[in-house]
Amino acid sequence: VRMMFYSGTSLFLISALLWTRCKSSEEKKWHDELLQKSGDLLLPATSDNIPREELKKMRNASRVRLPSPCASLKAYSGFVPVDDDKNSTYLFFLHIKSQVNSEFKPLLLWMQGGPGKSALFGQFLENGPLGMDATGKLFRRRPAILSTFNVVYLDAPAGSGYSFDTTGTYPSTLEESSVHVIRFLRRFLRIFPEYKNRELFIAGESYGARSAIGLAQRVLSRPTDLPCRLKGVMLGVGFVFPLLQIINSADYLYYSGLLDDHGRNEFAKRFQEIQHLVDQQNPTEAAKLLCQTVLNMHPAGHPSLFEELTGFQSHANIIRHRRSRRFETYMSYANSTEFKKIIHVSPTRSLDATRSQLAMALAVGDLFADKTATLVEVLNGVPVLFYTAQLDAVFPSVNMERSFSNLNWKGADAFKETTRKRWYHVINDRKELMGYQKIADTVMYTTLLVSGHLVSYDQSEVVIDLYRRFLKFTDKLPMDGPGQKCGNNTLPCWPISVVL
Which residues does UniProt assign to the signal peptide (predicted)? Predict the structure, then answer.
C-alpha cells in the first residue's frame, strides 16, 4: 500500500484522532497536560524516585501512530529535557520497536550528521521502516534496521532537527553534547524500562559518528552512568579524525577527473589558508572559510570553491552533480503540520531551523578539535564497525584509511597485517560485489563501492545488511567487555539512585 503524503492529510488526521480516542480518559488527560499549548510534547525530567505509574503515563502520552503502511508499528516520540535544572534544553526522539521479537533485540541509538540534520532523514531516506520516494509516496522499507534492532532516532546535539534550547545556547564541545545524550538515555530508559540491561549499539554517520564516539567514550569511562550493556559502535564515513586531515580532497578530486592542475592547486592553497587560521587560534574564521570551500552550508547565491571549480551542486558524491529531489520532498513532509502533529511537535517549529547556529557554536570548541584519543579509547573498549565510501568527496576513503592505519590502538598491528577481502551482498538472487572488508581484533573495517558521503542513502539495503553482519560479529566475541560486570560482581553495573 502506498500513499501520497500531500493528498493524505485527512487520513493522517483521522488516524491521529482514532488513536487519541482509543486512550483511556485518564491517559488522554495526562497526555493533554504534557502536550504544551504550542503542540510540543515536553516530557518532564525524571529520576529513579518517580513512581512507576507516572512513568507509564509518560510512555502512553508519547505513543504515536505512524502513517500507513507503518501504522501497525509501536512508535513513541516527544521531547526529553537534558540540561541541569533549567529545563531549557530538549532533545527530540522517535522510538520505533521491532515488530517481531522486540523483547529479544538490542537497542540502537541513531544520530545523524550535519552537524544539525534531523535523525528523521535517516528514518525516511536511509534505514527506517517508513520510506519515501521522490514523488512523496510513503512505503514500507524492507529490509530496515528495525528487523534487527529496536531503534531510537535522536536529534542530537541540541539544535539539530527538532531539538531546541529555549535560551538559544547550543553545545560547543563534544563533551557537552555527550552529557546531554547520556541524560537523555537515562531518562528514556526510565520511561522504557524493558531496555535496562539490554544490549546497546550506538550508530552515526559523518558528524553523527563523532557524536557516537563521544557518547561511547563516556559510557566506557563511566559505566555506572547507564543501565545498558554497550555492545558495539557503528561509525560511517565518520568525522572522527582531525578535520583538515581527512577533508582535503584536492588529490582525490584531481585523480577522479573533477579538478585539473589549476583546480587542484587552488583547492590545496585554500586548505593551507584554513590551516593557518586554525594555527592562529581563529576557529570561527577557519570554519567560515571552510564552508566557502566545501560542504553545502554557505550563504545562498554564493557558490563554494568546490562548486566553482567542478560545476557540482552537491559535495557528497563524485558522480552525482546535484542533490536528489527526495531531499526536498522529505523536508516538505517531515516539516508539514500534519506530520508534526503525529509526532507531537509544535506546528510552529521548523525542522533543522537552528542548524547554522549549532554549527557555529561547534566551530568554536569542536570542529577543529582532535578527538583521536577518544576514538582510540573506543576502539580499545568496544567492538566497532567502521565503514567508508568509495565515491565520498567529503571524506575520501583513501584519507580515512590512511588516518585509521596510523592509529595506535590494541589491534593496530593486526589491522596492518590483515589482507582485505571482497564483500558480497545478494541482490535479487544475484551475488554482487559491494565492497572490501578487513576484520582485525574487534574491528570490522569496510569500504562500500558505488556510494558517497550519504552512504546509507546511496546503499540503504547494503548498509542495513552490514549492520546485521556486525551484530553477528559481536555475538561471537567474548562477553567480557564494558558494561558486562562490575569487577567480580555479576550484578548490573549501575547505581540504585542517580539523577542525571
Answer: 1-24
CA distance 285 to 273: 10
pLDDT tens digits, 51-94:
999 999 999 999 999 999 999 999 999 999 998 777 899 999 99
CA 111 to CA 32: how far, in whole Å? 29
DSSP H helices, 320-411, are: 325-334, 337-342, 355-365, 372-381, 397-405
- C-alpha angle with apex 414: 413 to 418, nearest 5 degrees? 120
Burial class (CB in 10 A: 0-12, 13-18, 19+), 419: exposed
Grid cell digits, residue 450: 558505488
Give 425: exposed, middle or buried? Use CB within 10 Å, 0-12, 13-18, 19+: middle
pTM (2 decimals)? Answer: 0.89
CA gap 56, 63 in Å, rounded: 11
| DSSP state letters, 244-273 | HHHS--HHHHHHTTS--HHHHHHHHHHHHH
Amino acid at 272: Q
238-264 burial string, b = 16+ CB within 10 Å, else e?
bbbbebeebbbbbebbbeeebbeeebb
Exposure of 315 in the CB half-sphere (CA atoms within 13 A): 24
**482: nearest Cα among 383, 375, 374, 372:** 383
Instruction: Let me know: does 387 contact 463? Beta carbons within 8 Å.
Output: yes
Nearest to 356 by CA among 275, 283, 277, 288: 288
Amino acid letter, 282: N
Q: 227-274 pLDDT, tens per residue? A: 999 999 999 999 999 999 999 999 999 999 999 999 999 999 999 999
Distance CA 286, CA 338 (A): 40
* Domains of the chain with CATH codes: 3-243+327-356+368-475 (3.40.50.1820), 247-322 (no CATH)
* CB distance 30 to 164 below 8 Å: no
